Amino acid sequence: MLIKDMADRCEFLGFYLIKNATVKQTADNKNYLDMVISDTTGEIPLKFWDISDMDKETYFAGLVVKIKGTVSLYREKLQAKVSKIRLATDEDGVQVSDLVKTAPVPPVDLLAIIDNTIASIGHAKMKQIVEFCVSRVKEQLLSYPAGKSVHHAYYGGLAYHMVRMLELADFVCKQRPFLNQDLLKSGILLHDLCKVEEFEGGEQGIVTEYTMRGNLLGHISIISNWIHEAALRFHIQPQDDVVTALQHLVLTHHGKLEYGSPVLPQLPEALALSQIDMLDSRMQAVEDMISASNETCVTSIRAIDGGRMYKLNLE
Amino acid sequence: MLIKDMADRCEFLGFYLIKNATVKQTADNKNYLDMVISDTTGEIPLKFWDISDMDKETYFAGLVVKIKGTVSLYREKLQAKVSKIRLATDEDGVQVSDLVKTAPVPPVDLLAIIDNTIASIGHAKMKQIVEFCVSRVKEQLLSYPAGKSVHHAYYGGLAYHMVRMLELADFVCKQRPFLNQDLLKSGILLHDLCKVEEFEGGEQGIVTEYTMRGNLLGHISIISNWIHEAALRFHIQPQDDVVTALQHLVLTHHGKLEYGSPVLPQLPEALALSQIDMLDSRMQAVEDMISASNETCVTSIRAIDGGRMYKLNLE
Amino acid sequence: MLIKDMADRCEFLGFYLIKNATVKQTADNKNYLDMVISDTTGEIPLKFWDISDMDKETYFAGLVVKIKGTVSLYREKLQAKVSKIRLATDEDGVQVSDLVKTAPVPPVDLLAIIDNTIASIGHAKMKQIVEFCVSRVKEQLLSYPAGKSVHHAYYGGLAYHMVRMLELADFVCKQRPFLNQDLLKSGILLHDLCKVEEFEGGEQGIVTEYTMRGNLLGHISIISNWIHEAALRFHIQPQDDVVTALQHLVLTHHGKLEYGSPVLPQLPEALALSQIDMLDSRMQAVEDMISASNETCVTSIRAIDGGRMYKLNLE
Amino acid sequence: MLIKDMADRCEFLGFYLIKNATVKQTADNKNYLDMVISDTTGEIPLKFWDISDMDKETYFAGLVVKIKGTVSLYREKLQAKVSKIRLATDEDGVQVSDLVKTAPVPPVDLLAIIDNTIASIGHAKMKQIVEFCVSRVKEQLLSYPAGKSVHHAYYGGLAYHMVRMLELADFVCKQRPFLNQDLLKSGILLHDLCKVEEFEGGEQGIVTEYTMRGNLLGHISIISNWIHEAALRFHIQPQDDVVTALQHLVLTHHGKLEYGSPVLPQLPEALALSQIDMLDSRMQAVEDMISASNETCVTSIRAIDGGRMYKLNLE
Amino acid sequence: MLIKDMADRCEFLGFYLIKNATVKQTADNKNYLDMVISDTTGEIPLKFWDISDMDKETYFAGLVVKIKGTVSLYREKLQAKVSKIRLATDEDGVQVSDLVKTAPVPPVDLLAIIDNTIASIGHAKMKQIVEFCVSRVKEQLLSYPAGKSVHHAYYGGLAYHMVRMLELADFVCKQRPFLNQDLLKSGILLHDLCKVEEFEGGEQGIVTEYTMRGNLLGHISIISNWIHEAALRFHIQPQDDVVTALQHLVLTHHGKLEYGSPVLPQLPEALALSQIDMLDSRMQAVEDMISASNETCVTSIRAIDGGRMYKLNLE
Amino acid sequence: MLIKDMADRCEFLGFYLIKNATVKQTADNKNYLDMVISDTTGEIPLKFWDISDMDKETYFAGLVVKIKGTVSLYREKLQAKVSKIRLATDEDGVQVSDLVKTAPVPPVDLLAIIDNTIASIGHAKMKQIVEFCVSRVKEQLLSYPAGKSVHHAYYGGLAYHMVRMLELADFVCKQRPFLNQDLLKSGILLHDLCKVEEFEGGEQGIVTEYTMRGNLLGHISIISNWIHEAALRFHIQPQDDVVTALQHLVLTHHGKLEYGSPVLPQLPEALALSQIDMLDSRMQAVEDMISASNETCVTSIRAIDGGRMYKLNLE
């Protein structure tokens, strides 16, 4: 049974991914596993009561399990309980990737689009720098999400976010020919690339944790360093305007100091990048939350002020 | 000579529009006219010294004049001085509209696009409401700007802003089919319509002043009233979801309470509208400021945080 | 026993109103009802353990019940437990209105004051508009509260808030004769009127929920629409200053953009209205919270910064 | 001629008060006096060109002068120019107080009301403390304004502000009998008292400057010290609740930390005090600005957000 | 066993201090004691199930107990459970002070340093005032912490904070001889002194509660009053600059209005005081939190923005 | 005559540095030079009327001139006027450096201290990185200021700021041995180093302008790049904790996102660095402003909230 279809007091059977698993003890000192399981349609808390010592050493985050269980309502939230559980075997033929929500476009196709976009960059130095940076994380782009829970939180979500932004940039550049299309596209390709240094668990398409290095530096400063490194590698002066421009775009893409950009957009393409990023990420967050919910009124959408969206059916 | 080409210590001759004209007195008690003149390429302060009583009754804002004069630098700003001046005559064949910057697309064409868009709205009640509101200001859409100085401050600027947003909306709806295209387009057509009640001088393509009614109510609340009126007119229940949705879109299009929206976006189309509005108005403000300046670094752009943009030529 | 008098480990018996009721399950999968009950003196959470299928279909929000139970302390909050429970019957003679806190003045008397105030408006058009709007919700004014929990959260609370503000306005106008008394009084009568479109459950004197329409538009914009409608109805030009002034007062009564007013007060009466509203609502919130508590230090008062009030007995 | 009636290009003759006077030099090195003069109806800048050495030693702020002069418009502001000037003599019979706007109620009457209010305080210790503090500045209450330019900026303005607030408090206490009337009235009498330590020039009914001590401590902390001193004087324990309560009221009367109150209102009377203070000071600021201007739209009112007020004549 | 060494599923035996103790009831109505116990190395929640009526009257905050118990993990936090418990007896020889973390320097030594510092103040009046104020709380300085949990939250923490700041001030004055060393040192000695009026439980080295007087006035205003009182006592004019300066330093030491200082620093020594206070309190908070935790990443540090600190071992 | 000693109506003669020079025209169309001149004691505006074409091509910012002139008061500010002016010649023997305020310690001595500090770094990789970065700007450290006008705005001001912070860090590390002294010192040496890429005119000890690259990237991100480059150069992994730590310190040294740090301090040494930076820069700004003014009350100090400082002489 898909998690999206689970309701109060139903029984279920199926394969799921363990997102979290912690051994805890009840007030009367018995061990149990407090877990969260997920599939492509959502996630749900799961209690596995009265576990054995063996169980504690068997079930960890990132593993695929087959579970028979029941669902109940607890503090107005659904929660599942294990009746039977075992690890998935090779014969089951169920992979992690089968259970993580995936970008609507296959990651390999996304990568192909990204490659084509790089190939289309006319400015030679710019192309070298972008190619250098993207090639370093090509593997990860097949799987990494763009965020933990706010937006594009799924397998290949990062590459998907890049590609959707490229489409938008393409259109905006047609509307506004004074924009340097090479620069804007390069900025999009680079801006979130170092999220791969911020996220743990990204190869599974999920973010289980932020890395220490990610917290201490942030993806914005790391990609700026990579651009610097690329320039050195290809004997481009770090003072060259093309280096400055690319670094400016990645540094400013959050749009405001209080969102973690150390400087404000001061090139038209930087402004365009931050606006397109905001448009795409917010709309996607809303689309994801709405499609994952059966309610008419979806709340707690962290990507937007107020956090509430209604679904309205205007017949 | 075009105003854009005026430089320190040059002489000029040409037709210009008076944007402001105030009679003042020098410290030694002589009258002079303190004016601002403009053409399609920019504006410049103009001093008309030692005026006669006749002069005082001749030159007013909104009139076209022929001027011979000189330019000098005063407190790091250019300023012009009248050598000779007279009102334009019919034989001169120069109209106000010749001297006001105009939207890149002729207003009649913009109106045609707007009409076609209305015609394309599939939802019958929605179309009635939008048609009612737009038809009320059709005349003004041929001339009104979208703002005083921040963005789209030119002849037909309001209609141009609407049409560019419609293009963006069209693209975004293709990317995100879950959006109600009728609703988003209607929101765009309506959102700034009542700026025609906020601006004085809009028929000339400029904003000389805000109206009292505009200051006391704001265009957001006035258009909400018009939607209500349209519903009554067509016997649509004001509680009908279509009325609520349209009003919600116009009320929320500034995106934040502190920008004057009394409620936050809570429909996906409302979020899309506010994002598209921000993207189009900021990019246009930057484009206009950059194209109007010969400097590499343009400052004081009120539409964006920091207010500074560089022009960078990546060869 | 009145809820106000319930203390740790006491037993109680009485009639109460169910404010909320949700079926939940214990960790070991048993159903129970998680409720909140109230009377005129306060409210308390109530657990009804081991319920039958029948119970689940019997007890809902808005119903009057007779309960025998016990009180205990749980996480520093009092909580009640059902020993015996049944629905109130006609013979019991207990109405919902007996269990909801009521404004200190009977609603019918409040309505009479409101009617008299309308009658006293000298400006003919203003009177027509106010009369039109108030008459539309006269029924609801007999019961609706002014808020969910912040201030005047009781039966007839909205009308009570209006009347107390009218008294204050009367006094302020005596102090400051330059104020237009008709306008200020009209503004008070109108400003919160459309809360009746925002609240669910208002006929019971409580707010169980906000309506979708209330969330999407807000009471401020809805009353502005009504004023517009009234003007149309009585053939008053919407551009007439009296319409603009009334709409300005209702639009600005929250006093700040970040509180949801789309424009700031720009008429003396608008400033007076927002100040009087703030004075009355905050003082009432404090008075209600203090009188409902036996503590010397009352905390979590949402209407005021800091949220804490001491009761001090200066002998 | 009254300053209020001066217009562009008129001549005037009359007695005025010098508010500021500075010797300056023109670009070509001639001395002149740059002054501001005022009467009860307003103020205007005044230039006195080509002054003698004698003139420089004759005209200072705070003196009454007889001036013949002319008015002109300079940078959209009216400005006067001296034709003839001399100091007022005893025979002229014009006092400073004739030229400073005065509270609508004679200061001696205000003081009488203040005395009666003190006499009406029932709580003995409270009365002692209030009496001690008020008596220390009784002289100054006959003249001091309540502010430099924001509100009640006139002769006796401080006492007038106190009396108007006492009236409001009286009314609010009738509406809300749970308030301790003695405490609220005492708070009003004390709250702004130490503005007399903040202002220079207050004996003339104007604020020419803030004192160093006023800037370093603020009137809020100084009055708190005085209350402490009064307690010591009358052998009341500083820990006595009545001392704490009075100090709390004065410390919190600005209502918010960012307005300079070190703690937030936590007694109902403290909340009432800050609300009544805000209501009275804002309304008075608006009333004063409106009555001093002939414009329909008055701008730059510093006491209110937005700073703009319209005068609307609803016939 | 020290609390710092307690881990999941271990057993422990030892003496501890009860920080909080509340009688609660389980869902099935049984009484238990919900406590927090502490020793010099940290604190941990403790459940004492199935208590007797006697138990309820025996165990209170502030008492020393001997406990045998077990530790388990509950919602990712460690929590202890009582197996056996009794009050400490005289024979046990364990004092409260043995179980409260103490400043690294013995309080008596801290007091000696404070005394020496006072003795070193050259300005006679200043010395009198400081001596008067410090002597009033000398007893409490032996035990009071500087805060509840943010910084220096331990026995003698307040005096320790003062002494560390004095060291820093000494160094800064050497770097910047233009500073008045007497004034800066006096400011440090006085600035937090009246926290002894804000805290309950300070004689035990802990803060169990804030006093009503502390909440209503704040330590900043109380010490200002004491300085005023000292001036009166020694016949120093309250207007004397030395009084103003000392009061200014204590009033401004929080550095910003929104942190509760009613005025901003306007003397160099006031700026130095607020900077040194911030430096010492934040560094100490971080040092305390880091040393009390075995984690590499310590979170929820309330004294700093973001609240997270990593321990990094650069080999 | 030193600029500090210039007063209203005095005559002066001396050598000065031209800080700014712009050709302007009077209202009656005559050219003049609008300049600012400075020496080690301050700066003053200077008008050079009726200039020749030769003059326009002679006097530019950065040149030393000999001037005879007079001083007058204009709009309450002192302003100088040229009587006679000529460029300094070699025989005059006056250098730019003679006219720019210089750090109290000779720059070569500051550099020696910086070198010694680098030599004292025990951690080998850290030393390599710091040495690499500092050596790149050693030349500039002899002259560059630390800011345009806020703090340390003088010849060698940047090196002086570094050295004073090193002294403070030395002391703080003694107080708090848990701090990694190598890391803190390295952070201080690096944190502002790339201001040399932000400032134009720094070789003269002044900031005439910000560079485009400085505005687009900011010194914080540039030094982060240099650290990355140093790591590559010395074959240190960019992921090495020492690289991360150094980058973290420079990225976070502004202490808050809204001050332009993209991440918040999360290492104790990063917190110490931002606190020490704030302490030193604010105290220096105040010391500089106070010593440069003869007023008792110095205003407009941009480095501090409120901007006002009093000089108080406690006899």
Automatic annotation (TrEMBL), chains A, B, C, D, E, F:
Query: Where would I find the OB domain in this sequence?
Result: 22-87
Name the SUPFAM superfamilies on file: HD-domain/PDEase-like, Nucleic acid-binding proteins
| A matching Pfam family | HD
- Organism's domain of life? Bacteria
Instruction: State a single Gene Ontology molecular function.
Output: hydrolase activity
* The keyword Repeat is assigned to this record: no
The chain positions of domain HD read 159-280
EC main group:
hydrolase
Key words, A-Z: Hydrolase
Known EC number(s)? Answer: 3.1.-.-
List the protein's name: 3'-5' exoribonuclease
Q: What is the lineage of its organism?
A: Bacteria, Bacillati, Bacillota, Bacilli, Bacillales
